[in-house]
């Protein structure tokens, strides 16, 4: 065929004819080029499998675990991901509509370059549709994770801003002590940012450091005794720190001069039935 491109359900089909001018002086043999082209359909199948930015494992374990210590924070993360994918789909929808109009205009023209432009747009439209399909898969995945988190933590369907804010102090305390563990393990000392984090939530930095070092030493002793504590040990330590310091932020509020963190007058609340 003499066409510079051919479009089918997989977008632009790369063939020896299509690549002839582009690779005119290439050292690749005709046989090698044909072999490469013959195996390209696997790309389209593979992109449907792993064309997303993150695997479901990465999205579920790494994103959900590392970003949040509160189920409400995890719900927020799910909603953020869904919103990003939704906005991308809206943008893709209108880009496709614009491209369809451009194709019609180019195909009406007599100029050979217009025909090339039309073929080019058709090829890129396939890539947009593939990305849209992957975005829809991610939306579905995050919707499922959202519902599972909500159900497993007995969070009401109509949870509101007050419910969310109620979990922010426990979240901050867990994050601060997790950071302290990371600081000590990586540099042997607590970072200034963690010291500031503790002070903001009413934890004396020296007390926070002592408790963290005591915990790490207890784990080290278990390991020396050939015991291998799981990560549940750390989770229990973080939960214990929440119970110990859950009201200490009130000292910081007093110093600032306010009596409450949340102004309920301006918080989004669930509708009363």
* Major sheet: arrangement of strands: 1-2
How widely separated are the two ends? 69 Å
Structural class: mainly alpha
Radius of gyration: 28 Å
In a few lines, what is going on in this structure?
By secondary structure, the protein is an all-alpha fold. It has helices at about 15-20, 30-40, 40-50, 55-65, 70-110, 110-150, 160-165, 170-185, 190-200, 205-225, 230-245, 250-255, and strands at about 5-10, 10.
Structural key phrases:
mainly alpha, disordered N terminus, 273 residues, elongated, single chain
Question: What is the strand and helix layout of this fold?
Answer:
Elements: E1 7-8, E2 11-12, H1 16-19, H2 30-38, H3 41-50, H4 56-67, H5 71-108, H6 112-152, H7 161-166, H8 168-187, H9 192-200, H10 205-224, H11 231-245, H12 249-256
Antiparallel strand pairs: 1-2
Description:
The chain is an all-alpha fold and 273 residues long. The protein has three domains: 1-50, no CATH class; 54-155; 163-256, no CATH class. Helix content is 70%, strand content 1%. It contains twelve helices and two strands. It has a two-stranded antiparallel ribbon with strand order 1-2. Strand 1 (7-8) and strand 2 form a beta hairpin. Helix 5 packs antiparallel against helix 6 (112-152), helix 8 packs across helix 10 (205-224) and helix 8 (168-187) crosses helix 11. It is elongated and about 80 Å long.
């Amino acid at each position: 065929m003499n066409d510079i491109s051919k479009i089918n359900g997989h977008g632009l089909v790369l063939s020896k004819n299509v690549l002839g001018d582009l690779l005119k002086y290439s050292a690749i043999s005709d046989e090698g080029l044909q072999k490469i082209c013959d195996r390209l359909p696997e790309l389209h199948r593979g992109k449907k499998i792993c064309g997303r930015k993150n695997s479901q494992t990465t999205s579920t374990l790494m994103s959900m675990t590392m970003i949040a210590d509160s189920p409400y924070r995890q719900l927020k993360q799910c909603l953020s991901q869904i919103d990003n994918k939704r906005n991308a789909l809206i943008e893709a929808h209108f880009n496709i509509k614009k491209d369809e109009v451009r194709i019609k205009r180019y195909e009406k023209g007599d100029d050979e370059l217009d025909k090339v432009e039309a073929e080019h747009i058709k090829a890129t439209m396939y890539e947009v549709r593939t990305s849209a399909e992957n975005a829809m898969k991610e939306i579905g995945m995050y919707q499922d994770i959202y519902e599972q988190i909500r159900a497993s933590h007995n969070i009401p369907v109509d949870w509101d801003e007050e419910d969310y804010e109620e979990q922010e102090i426990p979240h901050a305390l867990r994050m601060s002590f997790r950071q302290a563990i990371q600081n000590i393990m990586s540099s042997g000392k607590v970072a200034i940012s963690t010291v500031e984090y503790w002070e903001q939530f009413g934890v004396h930095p020296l007390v926070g450091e002592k408790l963290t070092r005591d915990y790490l030493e207890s784990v080290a002793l278990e390991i020396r005794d050939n015991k291998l504590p799981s990560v549940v040990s750390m989770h229990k330590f973080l939960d214990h720190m929440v119970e110990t310091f859950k009201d200490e932020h009130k000292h910081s509020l007093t110093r600032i001069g306010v009596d409450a963190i949340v102004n309920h007058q301006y918080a989004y609340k669930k509708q009363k039935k």
